Amino acid sequence: MTIIHPNFGTMDASRVIIFDTTLRDGEQSPGFSMNLDEKLRMAETLAELGVDVLEAGFPVASPGDFEAVNRIAQSIKGPVICGLARSGVADITRAGEAIRPAERKRIHTFISTSPLHMKYKLRMEPDAVLEAVIASVTLARNFTDDVEWSAEDGTRTDMEFLLRCVEAAIKAGATTINIPDTVGYAVPEDMTRIFTTVREKVPGADQIILSSHCHNDLGLAVANTLAGVRAGARQIECTINGIGERAGNASLEEVVMAIRTRPDANPYHHNIETTRILRTSKLLATITGFDVQPNKAIVGRNAFAHESGIHQDGMLKNAATYEIMTPESVGWQKTSLVMGKHSGRAAFRDKLSLLGYGDIGDNALNDAFRRFKDLADRKKIVYDEDIVALVDDEVTRG
Ligand code: KIV
Ligand code: ZN
């Protein structure tokens, strides 16, 4: 059955919607809150990146959050603008008011469905939760035809109850159903089983978009997200740099590039302009004051840097030997061959030519290379200036 979505129209079966929640789930991580101007700048950059849905905040949370969602709804064109709401009337009404100015808008409403959350957090019986699902989705539909419903702690929810909630949400008018791995507990096989079962057992599940929202407590958020997509999810919820509660959310840049780089394993397409990934990541780091770790996939400073002699030699012969995507494809200017104690003669010679040295002769090259290695044993990174000083000295002495 073809899906006809209120904001995306007729969905191509291999199209994956990228739902960015940097400004909502991402902002919920300690120390990552952003002010209005910062949120507006991020929202503009996310729109240029090509995200399909921009979850701009949780309007009932504070007047500032309401204003941010409302201003983004007024000024950002392109993505569907989404506001989060729990299942109560106040939350949904506030979210509806905040997103009102947007050309294309969505309310994302959620309630916990796992035994643990229902008993200790909500203190509600399952039947009352089921009623809240129906009431919340029905109310949200008064503000927009695009309503997403999430089963918080969905991956730890009893399957039979999850199926009843999903069916009720679809009947009440939800057009996207999200089954989050709220606490990052799932393994990819769980995601496969859950999404496959929902698709097989829930009437109407083939007419709505299923969504995968994974947290990274076990470092499995991206793998779990993609497992969900392989089992039929067609929306990915993610954040720039993987920021989010605790260990974070699935990282946008990683899921997007996993799809782009491995179409054999992930035969889907998305609208992300991947060459804008790095600048978006850097803007977020500047705004929040949190740099990504050097070895972070795609956007870390070492993601396209090579120090070992063997790797540098391979890279100089053919970049595909040690790079599975080009740095330019995600916004880096080029690969960097970092000069350190593991670097070999081939990279040293290449560096000299990049620094403008012609042929300095074999003897000078050998001596300079030996002195470079001595220096590299003492310094973690040898900078271009160090090499220039060393070679100039060698050439003058020689
Ligand atoms: O992780 C989660 O369950 C959430 C919901 C609000 C969707 O962020
Ligand atoms: Zn979350």
TrEMBL record:
Top class in the EC scheme: transferase
Keywords linked to the UniProt accession: Amino-acid biosynthesis, Branched-chain amino acid biosynthesis, Cytoplasm, Leucine biosynthesis, Manganese, Metal-binding, Transferase
Cofactor(s) needed by this chain: Mn(2+)
Reactions listed under catalytic activity: 3-methyl-2-oxobutanoate + acetyl-CoA + H2O = (2S)-2-isopropylmalate + CoA + H(+)
Pathway assigned in UniProt: Amino-acid biosynthesis; L-leucine biosynthesis; L-leucine from 3-methyl-2-oxobutanoate: step 1/4
Keyword Endoplasmic reticulum listed: no
The UniProt record lists the keyword Cell inner membrane: no
Domain Pyruvate carboxyltransferase: 16-278
Binding site for Mn(2+): 25, 213, 215, 249
EC assignment: 2.3.3.13
Subunit structure: Homodimer.
Function per UniProt: Catalyzes the condensation of the acetyl group of acetyl-CoA with 3-methyl-2-oxobutanoate (2-ketoisovalerate) to form 3-carboxy-3-hydroxy-4-methylpentanoate (2-isopropylmalate).
Family: Belongs to the alpha-IPM synthase/homocitrate synthase family. LeuA type 1 subfamily.
Official protein name in the record: 2-isopropylmalate synthase
Organism: Acidocella aquatica
Residues of the full protein shown: 1 to 398 of 524
